Amino acid sequence: MNIHPIHTEEAYESALERVASLMDAKPGTPEFDEIEVLSALIENYEAKHYPIDAPDPIEAIKFRMEQEGLRQKDMVSILGNKSRVSEILNRKRKLTLEMIRNLHEKLNIPFENLMGDYQIQR
After folding, report:
1. Which of 38, 50, 74, 76 is the most exposed place for a label (fewest CB within 10 A)?
2. CB crowding 54-68: b at 16 or more within 10 Å, else e
3. What would the pLDDT profile of 20-75 be if each residue is shown by its tens digit?
4. 61 near 55, Cβ under 8 Å?
């Protein structure tokens, strides 16, 4: 195993290819250990060169609704009446602290995803 830090796109592509070639490695083998080390290096390189911004609060809510198969009417118990749900999801109204707490508690959306700033549409 000859592993080095990943500093270039070429080294990144090479590491990805090597991991793909080792995907059938069995736990406890040197090849499996190599996958673990390369995966950590790849993850580090991607975090630096391909960062993924967290979604804004409304996108986080919509994503969770899609994951859970929820519709707007299912959100009434969390966000308030039907028109309030529509206003929130259409960016006409900001989330309140109580709504953020409910979303976190009932849908397990992390607080950090719900506390971000977003523009409302006038």
Report:
1. 50
2. eebbbebbeebbeee
3. 999 999 999 999 999 999 999 999 999 999 988 778 999 999 999 999 999 999 99
4. no
* Average pLDDT of the segment spanning 108-119: 92
Question: For domain 57-114, which CATH number applies: 2.102.10.10, 1.10.260.40, 3.20.20.70, 3.30.360.10?
Answer: 1.10.260.40
CB 82 within 8 A of CB 113: no
Residue 76 identity (one-letter amino acid): V
Q: How would you class 6 by CB atoms within 10 Å of its CB: exposed for 0-12, middle for 13-18, buried for 19 or more?
A: buried
Q: Give the predicted TM-score (pTM) of the model.
A: 0.61
Is the confidence at residue 5, as pLDDT, over 80?
A: yes
